[in-house]
Task: inverse folding
């Protein structure tokens, strides 16, 4: 069993409680846990950081955890899943970290009859609301068993996705408002970045739906019927997250097409302007080229107005009349102005 290269130091904390008592304390050695496991109705042992593999292995041996499950704890590329064992459930969830440099991190949860054991990659998580409810004895969490604690942890992990997804929604709305005014290469890069992030979030959220559904569907003896009711609400949250992710991914696709359409319209405007300029100068170039030919006049073929005193102003006037006529023609056809793109 080897730890990830960027693993954080392992820190063990214990929360032990029943309906009337509560204790929260750091643990320096796994053997210290034995007295709390027998004294309290429910214990939550949390390990922050996976660097100390010997400590993690000793904890696994103390609780009789399967070596394959412990391998999954340190191999942090696991998808959300539920693996039932003889006397415990092994649950993997993908948690949004407090550090924005990491997209998601693995939370490994072991549910037993009297305690919950969790492993996370690094300190900092979205479980402060669960800890506060335990400290303040708020709600039914200290009146229920370890299965309700495991539900509360899963629910906090899943609900933490909502604010993150809403932030992406705000960014999409800002990009939409920006595109309505002007286009820029940064807009397309922003759309693609958001789309890729939403795709990663979708890959992280979707397995949670199947994992929670398995906890509801399969009759695990460690999960009481009262807790399954709350797990159904957790399952509904995963469905809502999937729907939101699909909606915002479609918004990304729409904004990308809108951005490409604006760029295409802008290019059409530029090509239209260049075409109009070229069309105007074609007859002018013809006239200038015709009168620019240096042929010696003779009695049989004389170029008109070649020796006329006012020939040059006359040709300039003809060019002006031709240019004005073309511009008037383009205007009558509606090819000039901002409304030309609607034709």
Result:
């Amino acid at each position: 069993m080897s730890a990830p290269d960027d693993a954080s130091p392992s820190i063990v904390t214990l929360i032990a409680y029943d309906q009337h008592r509560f204790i929260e304390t750091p643990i320096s050695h796994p053997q210290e846990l034995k007295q709390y496991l027998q004294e309290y109705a429910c214990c939550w042992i949390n390990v922050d950081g996976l660097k100390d593999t010997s400590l993690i292995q000793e904890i696994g041996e103390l609780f009789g955890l399967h070596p394959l499950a412990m391998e999954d704890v340190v191999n942090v590329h696991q998808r959300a899943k539920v693996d039932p064992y003889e006397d415990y459930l092994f649950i993997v969830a993908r948690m949004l970290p407090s550090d924005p440099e990491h997209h998601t991190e693995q939370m490994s949860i072991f549910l037993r009859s009297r305690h919950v054991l969790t492993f996370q990659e690094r300190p900092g998580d979205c479980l402060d609301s669960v800890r506060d409810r335990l400290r303040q004895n708020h709600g039914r969490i200290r009146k229920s068993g370890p299965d309700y604690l495991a539900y509360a942890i899963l629910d906090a992990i899943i609900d933490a996705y909502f604010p993150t997804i809403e932030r992406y929604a705000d960014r999409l709305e800002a990009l939409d408002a920006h595109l309505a005014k002007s286009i820029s290469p940064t807009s397309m890069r922003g759309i693609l970045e958001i789309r890729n992030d939403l795709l990663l979030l979708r890959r992280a959220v979707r397995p949670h739906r199947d994992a929670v559904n398995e906890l509801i569907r399969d009759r695990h003896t460690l999960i009481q019927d009262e807790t399954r009711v709350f797990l159904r609400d957790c399952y509904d949250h995963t469905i809502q997250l999937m729907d939101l992710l699909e909606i915002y991914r479609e918004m990304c696709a729409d904004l990308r097409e809108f951005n490409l359409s604006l760029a295409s319209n802008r290019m059409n405007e530029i090509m239209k302007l260049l075409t109009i300029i070229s069309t105007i100068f074609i007859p002018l170039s013809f006239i200038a080229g015709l009168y620019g030919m240096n042929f010696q006049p003779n009695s049989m073929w004389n170029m008109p107005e070649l020796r006329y005193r006012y020939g040059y102003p006359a040709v300039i006037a003809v060019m002006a009349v031709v240019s004005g006529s073309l511009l008037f023609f383009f205007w009558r056809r509606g090819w000039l102005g901002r409304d030309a793109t609607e034709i």
Q: What stands out?
A: The longest strand covers residues 11-17. The chain has a mean pLDDT of 84. The domain at 267-342 is CATH 1.20.58.340 (Methane Monooxygenase Hydroxylase; Chain G, domain 1).
